[in-house]
Design a protein that fits this description.
By secondary structure, the protein is mostly beta strands. The protein has two helices and ten strands, in the order ααββββββββββ. Strands 3, 4, 7, 8, 9 and 10 form a six-stranded antiparallel β-sheet that branches. A four-stranded antiparallel β-sheet has the order 1-2-6-5, with no helix packed on it. The longest helix has 10 residues.
């Protein structure tokens, strides 16, 4: 029998209070990667929360669920081994929507259009082409 996911173990805790959630977040790297299952988390007051990504063949806006009686939101996505996903969170407060990087995840990718949070699934390997080539001349900025 497969081990229960961390989020499900948390859900079973009694009492499920702020202290239990604090300990849980201190013990886990977010998103929590457990084999093919990746648990995205958001902690805070909101009316709705979504994970926004660009995974081909999947809805680009995935709703999160709140753990009843808490300020912790979660969604579990199954990702192929070796995946790397850039994402942001969308949070709705009434009619106001905010999009931004995951405040629980320190891993960020920067691009000309901004930054995104990064999830590295089980088996992800940084490709060789991202490392500087010692035999190539370094580039320079045009500014």
């Amino acid at each position: 029998m497969a081990e229960q996911l961390a989020i499900h173990r948390l859900r079973a805790r009694k009492p499920l209070d702020d202290n239990a959630i604090d300990r849980f977040l201190q013990q886990h790297t977010v998103p929590i990667v457990e084999g093919a299952k990746c648990t995205f988390l958001f902690r805070g007051d909101a009316d709705e929360v979504w994970v926004r990504h660009r995974i081909v063949g999947r809805p680009q806006r995935v709703p999160m669920r709140r753990l009843p009686g808490t300020s912790l939101w979660f969604v579990i996505l199954e990702l192929p081994a070796g995946s790397r996903v850039e994402y942001q969170l969308e949070v709705r407060h009434g009619e106001h929507h905010e999009e931004g990087n995951d405040p629980l995840n320190p891993h960020v990718a920067n691009s000309p259009v901004g930054s995104s949070s990064v999830l590295q699934a089980t088996g992800y390997v940084v490709p060789d082409w991202v490392h500087p080539d010692p035999e190539a001349r370094p580039g320079r900025s045009s500014t």
